[in-house]
Amino acid sequence: MSSAVVVRGEAGVGKSTLIEDMAATAAGVRALRAVGVESESELAFAGLHQLLAPLLGDLESPLPPRRSALAAAMGLEAGGTPDRFLVAAAVLDLLAAGAEDRPVLAVVDDAQWIDGASQDALLFVARRLGLEGIVLVFGAREATRPGSRLADSRASRSAASTRPQPPPSSRAAAASRSPLMGCTFLLTQYLQLAHGYTPLGAGAAMVPLAFGLVIGSGTSHRRVERFGTTRVVTGGLIGLSAVLACSLLWSPRMEYWAIGVSVFVLALAMGNVLAPRPVPSWARSTRTRPASLRR
Question: Does the predicted TM-score (pTM) go above 0.70?
């Protein structure tokens, strides 16, 4: 999955420290970095040239019209003023090609000083991110320079709010949460009405459900990474259906431990149905912040 984040604030609040720490601790990613310089804020595509320098050796990735436009913008080919749309589309192609073997983390600090042409191209990319494995992080001061798109709250909010749609399996898992919780409630009512349990006894019978949910949902990301979300959710739904079907065979004389085991297996299946998307290694590595950022 891909995303874009804009960190805005006044000078000296710690934006650069936060961004630098994130970039330094990111593991397993291709890191690209650019820092806006006021003296280059009027040089068209200077920001892109700084950010994309490590990828310019792979200019065969964009389609020919886009490749020529980007090469001209980077000063690698002679030509007139390149078409900004073709340049922006070529940047997206180039970043996507760079993310084929590992995710790309592109960090732009002091973005308020990035030239307008580069800002337009990066905002174009941010609004079109999908499943490429690209993360854009911008650090910018509050509207320091007139016309700075990334320093403007409305433009940056538009970029940061752009999110790819989750896959159908994830949407199905999200839609299953309420029915699954309703199923738990109905199960307690079933134990009371059909088996003569007291409300306290029916609630106690649901204790294995809590343990099963913690274990099932807490380990589901490993199964997702290995088998994929669709297979894990499908397996959970099959297990859920099987346990619910077996519950029809329960009798008033059934031992409590048997009901507890059934409820525990039911919770494990629920944990798979609610399976999360796998967390990329760079996101896991940024959860631990150094002491200098905890104050």
Answer: no
